[in-house]
Amino acid sequence: MKKKKGSAAAGIVLFVLCAALCAGVRLVFHACGQTEEGKWMGCHWAEQAVFAVGISLTAAALMLLIVKNSDVKRGLAIAMIPQAAVTAFIPNTLIKLCMKTDMRCHAVTKPAVIILSIMIAVCALICAVMNRESDRK
After folding, report:
1. CA dist., res. 56 & res. 90, Å (int)
2. Residue 5 has pLDDT above 80, yes or no
3. 66-110: per-residue pLDDT in tens?
4. 47-78, pLDDT tens digit by residue?
5. What residue ranges do the domains of the chain occupy?
6. pTM of the prediction?
7. Who's near 2: CB < 8 A, 6+ residues apart?
8. C-alpha separations of 82 from 87, 106, 122 in Å
9. How far is CA 92 from CA 7, 49, 108, in A?
């Protein structure tokens, strides 16, 4: 029974991290705004991409909480690991940020996205291992 509680707790933490990525990229550590000419910089599109992948991660984490089958849970958790890794590479690797490194997108958005993405990947790995261990008992 302890393994199930631990697995559920890890799933809840994973869901909270994924939701924090979605909400954070929009509200707390958002990228730069529009230019004076009304154009969007590249960092805006990086923010949009992180938000889109964050929604997918949040949906997978929610399914992880709802589904009862441990094999399905393990598969969902394993699928979340590369998604989180790709999310970490979006700002400035896949989508270039502003040219100036002292801009908000470099100073706030990029580190926050990388840290949260790594935390999501590690938590998903823990969920996958916990669901594997619960099958052995």
Report:
1. 15
2. no
3. 998 889 999 999 999 999 999 999 998 898 888 888 888 889 999
4. 999 999 999 999 999 999 999 888 999 999 99
5. 42-137
6. 0.87
7. none
8. 8, 23, 11
9. 34, 12, 13
Q: Give the HSE-up count for residue 115: Cα atoms under 13 Å, Cβ half-sphere.
A: 10
The confidence band for 3, taking pLDDT boundaries of 50, 70 and 90, is: low
Cβ–Cβ under 8 Å, residues 18 and 61: yes
- Closest by CA to 31, choosing from 103, 124, 101, is 103
Mean pLDDT of 19-44: 87
**Exposure string (b/e) for 101-119, b if CB count within 10 Å is 16 or more?**
eebbbbebbbebbbebbeb
Q: Which residues contact 64 (CB under 8 A, 6 or more apart)?
A: 11, 14, 15, 73, 76, 77, 80, 127
**What are the structure tokens assigned to 6, written together?**
């631990």
Q: Provide the β-strand partners of residue 87.
A: none
